[in-house]
Amino acid sequence: MTDDAWHPAQYDRFRTERERPVHDLVKLLRPAPGGRVVDLGCGTGRYTSLVHDHVGAAESVGIDTSARMLEQSVDHASDDIRFVRGDIADLDGHWDVVFANASLQWLPDHDRLLPRLAEHLRPGGQLAFQVPANFDHRSHTVADDVGREFGLEPLDRAVGATSPARYAEILWASGFRDLDVSMRIYGVDMARTGDVFEWVSGSLLTRFESRLGAARFDEFTSVYRQRLLDALHDPASTEPYYYAFPRILCCGRLSA
What we know:
It is built from ten helices and nine strands. 37% of the residues lie in helices and 23% in strands. Strand 1, helix 3 and strand 2 (59-64) form a beta-alpha-beta unit. The radius of gyration is 18 Å and the shape is globular. The model has no long low-confidence stretch (mean pLDDT 90).
C-alpha cells in the first residue's frame, strides 16, 4: 500500500470550483497584522499565501501530511511563509489564526478537536475552517459499498453527521465568539456525469488508494466508476450533471 495517494494535478483539475469556498472562508477572517498563521492541511500551499496576505500576518506555516502536495508549495514559499510535513493532530505552538480548508473532515471527534485547536490560539485568535457536507451523496455511499466488497470498512466520516448548528455550539463552548457558521451549496456544472468520478479521484478516492495499493485500487476504480454512473442514472456518461456540493463554513474569535 502507499501512504501518499494525493495527486496534485488531479486535485487541481477542478481548481476554479474548489476555490470558491476558500475565498468565502478567507473573507470571514479579520485582519491580524503582525500575527502568526497556521494552515492545517495546506496541500500545495496555494491558499496559505492568500490567508497570509489577507490578515497581514508576519509569519505563516502550512502543514500537510502529503509530500507530493508539498512538493508544489515551493511556488508559494517566502521569507515569511514556510511549509512543513506533519499531522494536524500533532499541532503545537500558539497562533493568531488557525485556518483549515477541506481538511478537518479527515479527523474524527470534532467535539474534542475544536477545543484542542482553541488551546493553540492566542487571546483574540481566530479559527476558520470549512468541511464538505456531502457524505450522503452517491459518490460517497457507492464508494463505501464497493469498498466493503474489497474488504474495507467505511471511511470514518463523523463530520458528515455534524450540523452547522452543532458546530456553532461546539465553537461557543470552546470559547469562540463572533461566530459565523453557515452551510452553502457550491454547485458544479459538469459536462458529463463521469466528471463526478474525476472530481472524487482528486479527493475522496485517495483514501481508498492508500489502503488498497495500486493493483487492487485499479480494480476498485473500475467497479466504482461504473457502479456510480449506474446509480446516477447515466451508465454511458452522455449527459451533463449538476453536482450540488454543500459545505459548512465556520469562523470564530476568542476573547482578547
